[in-house]
Amino acid sequence: MKKRLLLLLLLLFALFGVLVVVPRLIDGTLIPEPTSTETESPTYTADLPSETMEPDTYPTEPPSTETEHPIGPGWELPTEAPTEYDPGDPVDREKIVTDIIFASDIHYMSPSLTDYGQAFTELIDNGDGKVVRYMPQIWQAFAEEVIAARPDALVLSGDLTINGEKVNHQELTARLAEIEAAGIPVLAIPGNHDINNPYATQYFGDYQTAVETVSPEEFRELYAAFGYNEAVSHAPDSLSYLYILNETTWMLMLDSCIYDPDNEVDGEIKEGTMEWIEQCLREAYAQGITVVPVAHHNLQELSRVYVEECVIRNYQELLELLERYLTPAFVSGHLHVQRIHKHTKGPGMPENIYGITEIVSNSLIIPPCQYGNMTLNADGTISYHTKNTDVSSWAAKHGEINPDLLDFPTFSSQYIRSVISRQAFNEIKYIPDDVKTHMVEYYADLYSDYYAGRQIDYIERTNELGYQLWDRYRNPSKQFRQIEGMLMDSMANNNNVEIPNPIRQIWER
Q1: Rounded-to-integer distance, Cα 12 and Cα 273, Å
Q2: Lower CB density within 10 Å: C or N end of the chain?
Q3: Averaged over 223-237, what is the pLDDT?
Q4: DSSP secondary structure letters along 355-403
Q5: Model pLDDT, residue 125
């Protein structure tokens, strides 16, 4: 009897739950209100401000990309990577025609640092063909051409001195002041030779002795009048700055050098600078402004001969960033080789597919002592060509009697070939001298063409006797690999380029 009563009570309790409790769960009257820790996870986006580029208002430090979020038991950060910022469709506007002259790797050396004796001779004999002895004359001829051309700016992309000697910096900045006095803005950035260089040297008699170099702070002070003081924005962690040339052209001068705590040959873009670059690009993109980035180190791997310590370490990140904002061109130096290369995502891509074009200026004091002329056209296209410094005309005009200067093309061509052939001759062992002579002459001729960016006919040059001797006697070897690299790199013209307006090409993000 008791068991039957207990079973009846259980059935009544179950019936109460079905009739009363479940309906209240369904209509929500028994579900508690959510607490602050039970809200949906926040979205992690950072809306960077769209600010004008006025000197007093543009931020000099990147805004924080962190967003406040609740932290409580069991909270975890999102595992998915944040979505890449989409700048949207570009603004197509007419440009102000702008002319810029580029020079790189000047490696200026003051005559006060040498007596041109044995120590100096060893310096140039072991170099890559720099005409250091006539650096002051080359510079004066170049400066007069710049002043006569009256560009909207002269841009110097690093390695301003031979090895960062303070005296060389001081003398060069005095010469730059003469160009600025003529009404031409000069924009400069450092190269790997310029700051904290342990090889800052003077050359007297048989001895090379150390001299004072400069710190990053001293470099900025010395070149304050050549970009830094007039810049509208500076990167928070490097000597990079943004310079406004006009309403439609901005110069993004990037410090890619490593000099703290120690000077290194290769380069990188620091994290804070990378974030600052994107701020600059966003603002320019929103206004339809052309940005021309300039750095000392290379944006792409451009040489089969020089494969180490040339490209920016984090170049892929910088490349993707620049292409996201349809940047048309990137100008660099460092290689001492005149190169032009359009970035493509794969071989055989059509010409109308957008990719940034890199222009590498060769050294101003390596024959043929070239510099670059760039014109940003009204339709958004860019024209670029090189020009040889006319030292001979300058020498005749100023009453020089030195035959080297009066016929500089002949002298400089012979000079670079003699320096390089002598080095190559000393590298070759166990081959008769008459055979070596043919080999080193071929190597020096090819080297001269390669540095100048001249187009080379691969088939024609490989059929020459010099190549066949190298192939027979020195394949494989380091020098033969260099010959193959120079030939393959020079199959296109590296002295002229027409860069389309990226907006009118096919592009994707």
Answers
A1: 74
A2: N
A3: 98
A4: -PEEEE--BTTSTT-EEEEEEE-TTS-EEEEEEE--HHHHHHHTT---H
A5: 93
